[in-house]
């Protein structure tokens, strides 16, 4: 059985988040979008549901963390090249994001990270499958 991944993230301002991720090249599924939520498509098997905080709270009795000082998840996604990593993160920073940590270059893998408008950590990475240590 094929499994699909849905990551759910609370956001304060859905329009601001959609504008940010649209500028980074992500697309959204309008069938799962309204004023409280949207479905950001990573690929045919992975999606990120951006939910306004009041909608997100309908799915949990726990408190939403304050991303200024806490982290619960780091969302990582692959891109096609080192250059694509740099282009995407550079664009995120130009949109007002901040780096989450210093770039990581292991030779066979390269990543950079950024904070989205709500302080969630995202990592874009490239991995050379021919250079992975055996």
From TrEMBL:
UniProt-listed PROSITE patterns: VOC
Residue runs in coiled coils: none
Domain of life (superkingdom): Bacteria
InterPro entries: Glyas_Bleomycin-R_OHBP_Dase (IPR029068), Glyoxy/Ble-like_N (IPR053863), VOC_core (IPR037523)
VOC domain mapped to chain residues: 3-127
Protein name: Glyoxalase
């Amino acid at each position: 059985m094929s499994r699909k991944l849905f990551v759910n993230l609370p956001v304060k301002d859905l329009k601001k988040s959609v504008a940010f991720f649209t500028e980074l090249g992500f697309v959204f599924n309008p069938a799962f979008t309204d004023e409280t939520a949207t479905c950001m498509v990573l690929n045919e098997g992975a999606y990120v549901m951006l939910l306004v905080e009041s909608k997100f709270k309908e799915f949990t009795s726990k408190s939403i963390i304050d991303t200024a000082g806490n982290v619960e998840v780091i969302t990582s996604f692959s891109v096609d090249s080192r250059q694509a990593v740099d282009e995407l993160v550079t664009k995120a920073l130009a949109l007002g994001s901040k780096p989450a940590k210093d770039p990581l270059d292991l030779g066979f893998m390269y990543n950079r990270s950024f904070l989205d408008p709500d302080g969630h950590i995202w990592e874009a990475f490239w991995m050379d499958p021919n250079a992975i240590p055996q």
